[in-house]
Amino acid sequence: MIGTNIIMSEDKSIQKGEFMFMSWTKHYERWMQKEDLEKELKSELLSIQQDKSALKEHFHTYLQFGTAGIRGILGPGTNRLNIYMIRKAAKGVATYILELGEEAKRAGVVIAYDNRRKSPEFAMEVAKTLGFHGIKSYVFESLRTTPELSFAVRHLGTTAGIMITASHNPPEYNGLKVYGKDGGQVTSEVGEAIVKKVNAVKDELDVEVADEEELKQLGLLEMIGESVDQAYLENLRTVIINKELVEEQGKELNIVYTPFHGTGLRPVTKGLEEAGFTNVTIVKEQAEPDEDFTHAKSPNPEEHSAFELAIEYGERTNADLLIGTDPDADRMGIAVRFPNGKYEVLTGNQIGAILLHYLLNEKKKRNEFPENGSMIKTIVTSELGQAIAEAHDVKTYDVLTGFKYISEIIESYDRTKEHEFLFGYEESYGYLIKTFARDKDAVQACLLAAEVAAYYKKRDMTLYDALMEIYETYGYYREDLKSLRLEGIDGAQRIQAILSELRENPLQEIAGKQVKVYEDYEASTRTFVESGKTETIDLPQSNVLKWKLADDAWVCARPSGTEPLIKFYFGVKENSLEESERLLSELVEYIMNLVNKS
């Protein structure tokens, strides 16, 4: 992780190695005493100076850094995201790059940003921090998507990439993600190395930055844009599998698209148009970038309420397919008409199964199927994907939650040629089809979803019909996700307490279903409950618990890496949709009652 959660003592200040552990009041005083503290941050601190609990929340800890970067609520303090915390992270990355040598330094870093509050400013602060250390930055002249940033790293041959985004989080958040030279989020090993560099920055208020204009004159800051856009769009054309189908049906498919005020408008509409999908209606209220997401209840395609406006457009235009992408366009959601005539949002698991099923079948029809093909998914993603893959003799790899783990497997394929990547996805609406990007790519997913919808439209079927056809073939898999949001210091303690309780008192059954296998990814152990035998889980350690039950049901618990949430995932497989819904409801009720009593 880039940094660790440094908890401050209430009543003492002690030196420990490279770090200073001090009371939150000392940190507050340190900030208030800085003469040239950014005016907006100083004003906000002054506005809460009489509110001890609010000040403590801003300063009681250092903002937690995740495995590929930092994300948090904007504002002043060590537990908020601001230019000083951004500079601290950027200096850590700079120090890491310097140790790689002159070649890495010259190759530089490409920086992109989305429509979030402070995103352009944060992007330039990163460039100015890197530039102070003689590291070149390529900065996009205006907002771009995360997948294009991933592509740009590979296209420009840079040492790293940095994306300023909070992805699908609420408007008050922003963040910074770090990418390696392969275009994927940095590996655990690299992330841990950068952690040490970030932690070595003792005073976030004292990080030195260079002058923007001077960096441009020295050639250490270069603004980029159109040429990278064109290269990315050229690669997008390779996503379409059946060009003849799209040529025949593309003009007939009626699509409604919304970027939820984010970065997706230009690449998605341009990509669809160049592929042959020309009947696209844009949700105009949500078309323009907006840091406040004024006309979107949520910028997250996981939230069904996010599609309310798109559904209104769909009703007016009788659309075949509604598509939405999150602010940095790495996640995609879709809605289609159900038998009751209403548009409903499909889950990420359902979308992934539909895309995968079509992709494998179409490649096989066209004799484009590799002998060593593989599909990669996360441990909390539906097992339906594995069932589809196995039916096509495609190997499935399970990885921890986080698309960085999928990109690591892809990178290993590049080295060993052991397998050929066909598809990767996670239940949280992230998909990758082609590896010119190495993070989830909603723009690619939009194109493939449109092709799949065109295929089924030709058969006089909707994507709901396609899903039912898949269920009838492989079994009725259903999944759910429940999250508890627990804010602040008490919330973090409660999340840890819930997980500790579940570890200390192992569940033997859940809603009447016997636990067959218990997996603790922090201990790296898999226990077969009936025999008591254990084996090692060959994945990185992570604070995750999973219970595999009789009849292919399962439950998983993990804290979010980016928000104050503890998440519970549920999966079942039954012989009918009704049976699956019943069992799923029972599992959810049992676990949530258990947790709420703890």
Give an overview of the whole structure.
By secondary structure, this protein is of the alpha/beta class. It has three domains: 14-231, Alpha-D-Glucose-1,6-Bisphosphate, subunit A, domain 3 (Alpha-D-Glucose-1,6-Bisphosphate, Chain A, domain 3, 3-Layer(aba) Sandwich), CATH 3.40.120.10; 237-474, Alpha-D-Glucose-1,6-Bisphosphate, Chain A, domain 3; 476-597, Alpha-D-phosphohexomutase, C-terminal domain (TATA-Binding Protein, 2-Layer Sandwich), CATH 3.30.310.50. It contains 20 helices and 26 strands. Strands 19, 20, 21, 22, 23, 24, 25 and 26 form an eight-stranded antiparallel sheet that branches. It has a seven-stranded mixed sheet with strand order 3-4-8-7-5-6-9, sandwiched between helices. A hairpin with a 4-residue loop joins strand 21 and strand 22 (525-528). Helix 4 (83-100) runs parallel beside helix 6 (119-132), helix 4 packs across helix 8 and helix 14 runs parallel beside helix 15 (384-391). Residues 1-20 have low confidence and may be disordered.
CATH class of the largest domain: Alpha Beta
The strand count comes to 26
Radius of gyration: 24 Å
> Helix tally?
20
How would you sum up the major sheet? 8 strands, antiparallel
Percent helix range: 40-55%
Mean pLDDT: 93
Derived from helix and strand composition plus strand pairing, the structural class reads alpha/beta
Count of structural domains: 3
Rough outline: globular
Model regions low in confidence, pLDDT < 50 over at least 5 residues: 1-20
CATH overall fold name of the largest domain = Alpha-D-Glucose-1,6-Bisphosphate, Chain A, domain 3
CATH 4th-level superfamily of the largest domain: Alpha-D-Glucose-1,6-Bisphosphate, subunit A, domain 3
What's the end-to-end separation, in Å?
30 Å
The CATH architecture category of the largest domain equals: 3-Layer(aba) Sandwich
| Strand composition percent | 15-25%
